[in-house]
Each structure stands twice: as structure tokens, then as C-alpha cells.
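Before a colleague's protein record goes any further, I have to sign it off. I want your independent view on whether this chain really folds as the C-alpha cells say. The record follows directly below this note.
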Amino acid sequence: MSDNSQIKEMVRQKYSEIALQDNETNATSCCGSTCCSTEVYNIMNDEYDRLEGYNPDADLKLGCGLPTQFAKIKKGDTVVDLGSGAGNDCFVARHETGESGKVIGIDFTEAMIERARINAEKLNYNNVEFRFGDIEKIPITANMADVVVSNCVMNLVPDKPKAFAEVFRILKPGGHFSISDIVLTGELPERIKNAAEMYAGCVASAIQKNDYLKIIAEAGFKNIALQKEKPIIIPDDILKNYLSDEEVAVYQSNKNIIYSITVYGEKQATCCGPDCC
């Protein structure tokens, strides 16, 4: 798959289906459960239930990290969550920023926006809002956010340099981001890279780790650091949907090449006096 509009529409359709499922259905496809691992997008999920502000109704088991845990959110901050889904990271961020802060979730799947708004209303949160929008053109004014978070979503964006340029634009000088995503340290088999399901699962669209970090640096961010890194193992029952038994054996004989990373970066404050720079 090479056409960006086709990739976006495929991802939109898949995540619309997920938004309309109940949590029990989503959970039964999670690789972390005792069932077989039939859904690619659930094989890298981290558990949120120990984080303050966690709401199970908003947890669709779609992440690959815990960016809000590392995001250094302070009371009163304005936090933006890119690819907010049913609101999971937004509600955790809201606990950290408190009633004096503001949390804005951005998603380009209307069904997800609707589900997130229902969840926010149930919780009676009046400082959490959800906006429909594309991460390549975020519907937020420049220099507005103190913190940006995102969980296994930037990887789905075809134009990653444009997406990170948008993150830089909406952050205040002195603001920062904490983003969890999937990267590679080797080459995937072609039949995995070309599989639509693997795009929805954040695997086929993964780029090399060094290239990913280079995009962040070229967007203007400083003090870039990896906050967490873990290997992602694709189970045999998923691989066999795309590869022969021999190809599966060859793939599994290699070192881990798919990783979940949580990366941090800062938009430095503008120099405005004789004692800086």
C-alpha cells in the first residue's frame, strides 16, 4: 500500500469498527489475554489499570506504551492527545493536570470522537474536549499546548515529518511531548509490509528507529530521549496469516526487529535576553 489517502481511509474504517465494538469484544482479541492472538493491533498493549485517572470504558487496548506516565504533566497544564480514541490517555492526563488544566483529544475517526465524548459526559469532565481532525493538520492554534502525548498513533500517519512539525507548532516554547510508537531495527518481510491489517496494527507502517528519531530532531525538538523501549513479538498464529511456515521460522530466528518506544522531546523557549543563548 503506497497511496496515502488509501492508507488513511483503511485505518479510519478499521478504527471505526473498533470504536463500535464493546470492550469485552476488544479484550478477547488482545494478545495479553489467554485467547489466541487474532488481532494485530492488540499485540503490543500495555496495562493502564495502575494509573490514576484510568477509566476502563475508555480503554480499547490499542496502545503500545504509557506515554502519560512519562509526560511530566503538571497541575494547570494544557495537554493535547493525538489519536485520542475513546479518551483513555486524556482521562489519565486530566487527573494530572487537574480541574485547573485542560485536555484536548484529537482523532480523525468520528465514531471514536463520539465514544470519547460519551465517556467524558459520564465522568462529568468539563475540561476535557474531543475534536475531529487530522494529525497532519492539527485543529489547534500555534503555541497553545504545554504537553503533547500520543499512543501508537503517529506510526499510522503517512507523512510523519509533517505530523511532528505540527506537534512543534502547537507546543508552547518550553513545552514538550511524550509519545509511544512502533519502530524497526531491521527489515520486515514484504508480505507483512504490504498487508492492510498490519497497517492498522501499527506494524507495517513502522519506520526505522534512527529515521524516526531523525524526523523528530529535524522538526526542531531538543533534548530528545528514549523514556522506555521494549521488543514486540508477533505470535506465530498472526505471522502464518501472511508467511509460509518456512518464512515464519526464518523471521523468528532473527533478533527482535520491532520495538515499542516512548520518546520525549522539548520545544525550547525562545531566547529573549542578553543572558541567554
About this structure: Confidence is low (pLDDT under 50) at residues 27-38. Strands lie at 78-82, 102-107, 128-132, 145-151, 171-184, 207-208, 222-231, 258-266. The CA atoms of residues 30 and 42 lie 5 Å apart.
